[in-house]
Specification:
The chain is globular and about 50 Å long. By secondary structure, it is α+β, with helices and mostly antiparallel strands.
C-alpha cells in the first residue's frame, strides 16, 4: 500500500476531532481546541494529516501545522506587519504517533507528506519547537534527520521571512527547529 493510501488530510470536523483525541492522549495540557475546526480554516490555514494503519484502519499518527499564533494574533488586531508573509510560513504545532506504532517510520512519512503539501501551498519557512516535557534528545535527532536546523537549547528562533515568530509571553521550549522549503 502506498504512503498516499495511508496518509490523508483531515478536512472535516469529525476527522479533526479524531486527530485532536490522538493528541490529547499523547500530550499533557492540550487545549480542547488545539486542532482548528473547519470554520477557522481561513484564519489558521491548517494542514492536519492522519496516518492510518493499513491493516486495521486505526489512526496511528497525526500532525498539525498551521499559521503561527503570532501571525494570527497580529491579523486579528488589524496590524499589517505579518500580512505579506501569512501564506509563506507554517508552524509545526503538534505531531504524535501512538506508542504501539512507533519505530515504523510513521513520523517521517508525516513530515515528508506535510512538506510536500506545504511546498504546493507556496510555504517557504516551516518551524516549530519541542517542549521540555518531551523526549527532547530523540526529537532533536528526528528533526535533524528530516532536514531541519535544530537550535541549541535556549537559543531563540531567528527571524524568518524578516519576522519574529516567538510569542514573548510563552514559556520557552527546550529547543526550536526550522527549515526553508525549497520550491518544487
Amino acid at each position: 500500500m502506498s504512503t498516499a493510501a495511508v496518509i490523508s488530510e483531515a478536512i472535516t470536523d469529525a476527522q479533526r476531532a479524531e486527530a485532536q483525541a490522538l493528541f490529547e492522549g499523547s500530550f499533557h495540557d492540550i487545549a480542547p481546541t488545539a486542532v482548528p475546526r473547519v470554520k477557522h480554516d481561513p484564519l489558521y490555514a491548517p494542514l492536519v494529516l492522519c496516518y492510518r494503519d493499513p491493516g486495521t484502519g486505526e489512526l496511528a499518527g497525526a500532525a498539525l501545522t498551521c499559521r503561527s499564533q503570532v501571525a494570527v494574533s497580529m491579523t486579528m488586531m488589524r496590524r499589517p506587519e505579518y500580512a505579506p508573509v501569512m501564506d509563506l510560513h507554517s508552524e509545526l504545532d503538534l505531531m504524535a504517533v501512538v506508542p504501539a506504532f512507533r519505530g515504523r517510520g510513521i513520523g517521517g512519512m508525516l513530515i515528508r507528506a506535510m512538506e510536500d503539501r506545504l511546498r504546493q501551498r507556496g510555504v517557504r519557512s516551516w518551524f516549530g519547537n519541542a517542549t521540555r516535557d518531551l523526549e527532547t534528545a530523540k526529537l532533536r535527532e528526528f528533526y535533524t534527520r528530516h532536514g531541519f536546523t535544530v537550535l541549541p537549547d535556549g537559543q531563540p528562533l531567528p527571524d524568518l521571512l524578516g519576522r519574529s515568530w516567538a510569542l514573548p509571553t510563552a514559556e520557552q521550549p527546550a529547543f526550536f527547529f526550522y527549515k526553508q522549503i525549497k520550491r518544487g
